[in-house]
Amino acid sequence: MMLMERKKVFMLLTNPFKPDPRVYKEAKTLIELGFDVTVIAWDREGGYPSHEVIEGIEVYRVPLKSKYASFADFFLKLPLFYLKAFLYVVNNRTGFYAIHANDFDTAPLAFFLSRLLGAKFIYDVHDLYYTRISLLEEREKDTILRKLFRTAEILFAKLSDSVITVSRSVGGEHEGFKEFFVRNGVMPDKIYVVWNTPDLDLFPLLKRQKHKGLIVGYIGTIRSVSNFIPLFEVARRNRILKILFVGAGASRDKLQALISREYPDINVEFVKHVPYQQVAKYYADCDAIYSVFPLTENIRRTFAVKMFEGVVMGIPVIVNKDTLMEDFIHIHRCGVAVDISSNDVEMAIEKSLKIKPPAQLRDKWNWEKNKETIKKAYE
């Protein structure tokens, strides 16, 4: 008796997949659902194996150096990544079922391959790409390029077979990504919300580490600077406060240079290149998690991964006011919302010490709850 051939999924990604936590969790779920999964990743750092298998996930990396936070360099080299990824898919297309674009920068290639080879086109929107320029410049402004990106993102959502995205309204004042696409003409029944929640196997309830003073942690990619200045001002006034950064990112060096120049006496620690499987122990070191960003449309409509990871670990979170995250922390009484000012941040840290996120948040806001949604998106 012949065994049924497993359907093949290619996931396109413009980072090296170190791994990327969300893509890693989605890929593992797809394998559990019976798919063979290959992540085609752009190794923009040029420092990772070209072929690797990570927990059953086939990884093919395109080694092509490109500067982070440089749109010019990125878009100059993106066609070369497209060409290499295209050839890999075409040469390995036996059993090809779906192409999964992670964010807008891989959507054009995914759409083309899906139509050329008769596969499903899954468009996974982690961030609203048209807001990326605003985040890099750390202020919201409208430009022709931004309008073009916005139009294109909506177009590819309409062209896709399924849209996977990260947020919707939770019953408060703010809307999520799903509402953004629906308001712009995408059919709601093809939009699937896969929350940025943690896999509880990797985020057990660890015993909180005893320490002197107070530790506020930022755990994740560092893409901006201005949102941290109020925190540094508080640390300058309050010597018992330690700031813990865990992760790399395009703005990490700029942030360290600012600290050396303007805040040499604050207590701050940087930890880089932590395997995702070890991140939980750094949460256990923290008294509060800082999830505050330059306020853009994207931030208003999304949930930061660190917010979910913090609350399931039982740690209060500090988030931006006027966002979907503010709705969440008010509904679930698990944090404090702030304007980006030192006085607001200082008060938020004080308030957070009196907050303990409800234990039942672990039961609802975890990755296991996403698996049925991912299955439906692929049907």
TrEMBL record:
The organism sits in which domain of life? Archaea
Q: Which InterPro entries match?
A: Glyco_trans_1 (IPR001296), Glyco_trans_4-like_N (IPR028098), Glycosyltransferase_grp1 (IPR050194)
Name of the protein described by the UniProt record: Glycosyl transferase family 1
Q: What is the lineage of its organism?
A: Archaea, Methanobacteriati, Methanobacteriota, Thermococci, Thermococcales
Give UniProt keywords alphabetically: Transferase
A GO term, aspect molecular function: hexosyltransferase activity
Which SUPFAM superfamilies does the entry mention? UDP-Glycosyltransferase/glycogen phosphorylase
Q: Which part of the chain is the Glycosyl transferase family domain?
A: 210-365
- Transferase among keywords: yes
Q: Which ranges carry the Glycosyltransferase subfamily 4-like N-terminal domain?
A: 22-171
Source organism of this protein record: Thermococcus barossii
Q: Which Pfam families match?
A: Glyco_trans_4_4 (PF13579), Glycos_transf_1 (PF00534)
